[in-house]
Amino acid sequence: MRGSSHRPTIVLAGGGHANLFSLRRAAELARRGFDVVLVDPSEHLHYSGMATGVVSGAHAPSENRIGIRRLVERGGGRFVGGRVAEVLYRERALVLEDGRVVPYDAVSFCLGSEACGGGDAVPVKPVANLEGVRNRLLSPGSGAARVLLVGGGAAGCEVAVNVARLMRDSGSGGEITVVEAGPDLLPTSPQRARRIMLERLRAGGVGVILGQKASLRPGAAVLEDGTRLEADLILAATGVAPPQVFARSGLATGDDGSLWVNRHLQNPNDERIFGGGDAVAYRGTRLPRFGVFAVHQGPVLYRNLQAVLRDEPLAPYEPQRRYLYILDLGDATGLAIYGPLTLRGRLPLRLKHKIDKSFVREYG
Ligand SMILES: Cc1cc2nc3c(=O)[nH]c(=O)nc-3n(C[C@H](O)[C@H](O)[C@H](O)COP(=O)(O)OP(=O)(O)OC[C@H]3O[C@@H](n4cnc5c(N)ncnc54)[C@H](O)[C@@H]3O)c2cc1C
């Protein structure tokens, strides 16, 4: 699948948040003498910041989709629909699940992560799944669904309050319960944020069970104390894991199989391999798995993909020490968390919508 020209090929493997910056500049890369190829099983990236708003109905499903195929093709690049299964880094080629081979001169991996499922649970990541959750809960046969959400971190809690709002607004009479293994919700957030979230869940009619690890079975979860909770729909938000393609290919990885990258976001096995987002271990360790990190890595990847092919100095990446994240509480308010600071109200949600909408518009 290599082009006939002698132009170096930059492959963007996965059109995730960290590769968007380069994708949007595909035309500029072409003008500078590079062929650009995007490999992704999907033609759209579902922007995670708006995904829970899609569940509640605050955003239309189309509003959080970024047309990554359109982005690369608009810039004169090529879209290859498929999933990377192996990296032949000595030959500088990617093998796709269906056996096709995509050669590269330089590659940036941005494959994201997936929530760990189990039984017949629906993982909340990839966030594209959440569109299906909304459709399922609104389908005529779903009735008063019993929903169980396992995992009380930021993603799990945000999904829970928005599912509760959907069920309330649709008048379905369904119920939702969150089960968290730890003693508290939002384990990495300030105490005040945890309290606000707990209050919000309870006010929204969401059942909360803390300190119980749930084992997932088809149609049910069994708690450590033996309680069996039957459910019509189980959502898994119990943490995310990177794809295992890097470890399988013999590339250096962090301990969970994410791609090991140095301060230039470059893998030590081959100077032409870069990566960003949830699927990398920055200098061997995990950064928080938030899209804001992936987005900040975008310009560094864009620059370094070109620099390595031109024998120019590489740019360093410096992770932000503090970052803002705003959870949509599903009641027209947001919960903003920045380091030790926490603010709840309408203003944080307005700010979130403004940031999210302008981000998606930038890639529209
Ligand atoms: C419910 C929820 C809400 C969230 N809200 C926020 C938020 O408000 N703010 C925030 O900062 N973070 C948020 N996050 C976290 C955020 O989703 C991730 O940190 C972010 O998506 C990581 O981006 P990424 O670029 O690594 O991968 P992704 O954006 O997940 O993209 C991965 C891409 O790789 C493709 N792909 C996967 N496997 C392969 C393969 N083998 N071959 C080729 N392509 C492949 C996928 O199709 C996809 O296009 C949220 C997460 C969840 C679950």
Automatic annotation (TrEMBL):
The keyword Oxidoreductase applies. Residues 10-298 form the FAD/NAD(P)-binding domain. GO terms for molecular function: NAD(P)H dehydrogenase (quinone) activity. GO terms for biological process: aerobic electron transport chain. Its cofactor is FAD. Signal peptide: none annotated. SUPFAM superfamilies: FAD/NAD(P)-binding domain (SSF51905). Keywords: FAD, Flavoprotein, Oxidoreductase. Gene3D superfamilies: 3.50.50.100. Belongs to the NADH dehydrogenase family. This is FAD/NAD(P)-binding domain-containing protein. It comes from uncultured Rubrobacteraceae bacterium.
